[in-house]
Amino acid sequence: MQVPFLDLNKQNQLIRRELDAAYKRVMDSGWFVNGNELKAFEQEFATYSNAEFCIGVGNGLDALKLLLIAYKIGSNHEVIVPSNTFIATWLAVSQSGAKPIPVEPDIATHNINPSLIESAITNRTRAIMPVHLYGQPAEMDSINDIAEKYGLIVIEDAAQAQGALYKGQPTGSLGQAAGTSFYPGKNLGAYGDGGAILTNNATVAETVRQLRNYGSKVKYQNDLAGFNSRLDEIQAALLRVKLRVLKQWNERRKEVADRYSEALSDLNEIVLPQLQKGCASAWHLYVIRTKQRDALKAYLASLGIDTVVHYPTPPHLLGCYRDQYTESLPITEQLANEVLSLPISPVLSDKEIEYVASSVRKFLEHR
To answer: Helix or strand or coil: residue 218?
Structure first.
């Protein structure tokens, strides 16, 4: 049996008629940038996320970068970031002119460990950027308490967590602002690149609107040195369709995760995802840990099961950063050597779930 990691085509077929209608609506309108589809999506996604403002931008990296610039965070400043994350979190800080300051994760949740944040704060620190990794919210109460104590901004990297809840509150509404990504593989994925900013701060929202559009409020009048980073009308229209099924599709992702956990819970050779109390993961990824990761990955591939490592090399060891960060980050490096993401999506069948789980069991029981 072949089990792809993520079958976007199969997913799209469930809503193909609605997607085609949205595409036709945009094409018939003749308006492709900064139009009514974008305005409608921004309002709908803001409501979904319990935020006052949503501003669509070109991608998730731009969302974080533009937020940092809007908060005037740049040269000679520092931003606390997780050491265990996709590189975009760090790049956003670097591209704003500030320096990423890595903090190790909680080994249980893989999210930034709040108990280690205070020791990383200096007089140059201006913000904390927690990531809701794999779809599970970071420990936001502790992070917000630290930020308040030191007068810092909290910017959520919510790229993997559309639909996740922290104590009943949606991610994207847990700090001063948030950036998210609509990369095709995300729970709320576009058909190309896309991203958005969420905030309740009207001034920040207006600044980001200008920054995404060449720094302009009025055409040919550029008050800020801005960028070209706009979520286009076609992507906005298609995202409106997918937003309507996001809750349903996330519920199916949870069913898949629950089935995996039930089937694999008695195996001592792997560590299953561990959720914080009071949190509802969006289950963007289902990530296990095992010291036999590479052998398991190869074995599953031989059976037609596609898996992915999120992420094989931590940011501090990548070429663009390794000369700047010489300290060891042992927990992050351990995770990079042990994590493996199993297939998870709203269209994964019960038969495929059983095949993946039984294959993992077979490998581990015979080692």
So the answer is: strand
DSSP result, 255-302: HHHHHHHHHHTT-TT-B---PPTTEE---S-EEEE-TTHHHHHHHHHH
What is the spatial distance between Cα 42 and Cα 197, in angstroms, rounded to a whole number?
9
Distance CA 15, CA 228 (A): 31
Cα separation, 51 vs 158, in Å, equals 13
282: closest CA among 250, 252, 256?
Answer: 250
Q: Which two tokens stand for residue 350?
A: 């019960």
Alpha carbon distance 93, 127 (integer Å): 10
H-run or E-run covering 342: strand 339-342
A 10 A CB-CB count for 230 gives 21
Contact 312, 87 (CB under 8 A): no
For 274-298, how does the pLDDT look when each residue is reduced to its tens digit (9 = 90+)?
A: 998 999 999 999 999 999 999 999 9
- State the residue for tokens 């077929």: 13
The angle that helices 233-264 and 16-29 make with each other, rounded to 10 degrees, is: 160
N-terminal to C-terminal alpha carbon distance within the chain: 23
- Residue 84's closest CA among 331, 341, 338? 331
- pLDDT tens per residue, range 136-177: 999 999 999 999 999 999 999 999 999 999 999 999 999 999
Give the integer Cα–Cα distance in Å for 306 and 229: 33
Count the alpha carbons within 13 Å of 33 in the hemisphere toward its beta carbon. 7
- Phi, psi of 342, deg, nearest 5: -85, 160
- DSSP at 127: E
Angle at 223 (CA atoms; ends 221, 225), nearest 5 degrees: 110
Contact between 286 and 341 (Cβ < 8 Å): yes
3-state helix, strand, coil split of the chain in percent (to 5) is: 40, 15, 40
Any idea what DSSP says for residue 129? -
The model's confidence at residue 365, banded by pLDDT at 50, 70 and 90, is confident
Rounded CA-CA distance 278/252 in Å is 20
Q: Give the list of residues 6+ apart from residue 288 with CB closer than 8 angstroms, or none.
A: 264, 270, 271, 272, 273, 339, 340, 342, 360
H/E segment holding residue 7: none
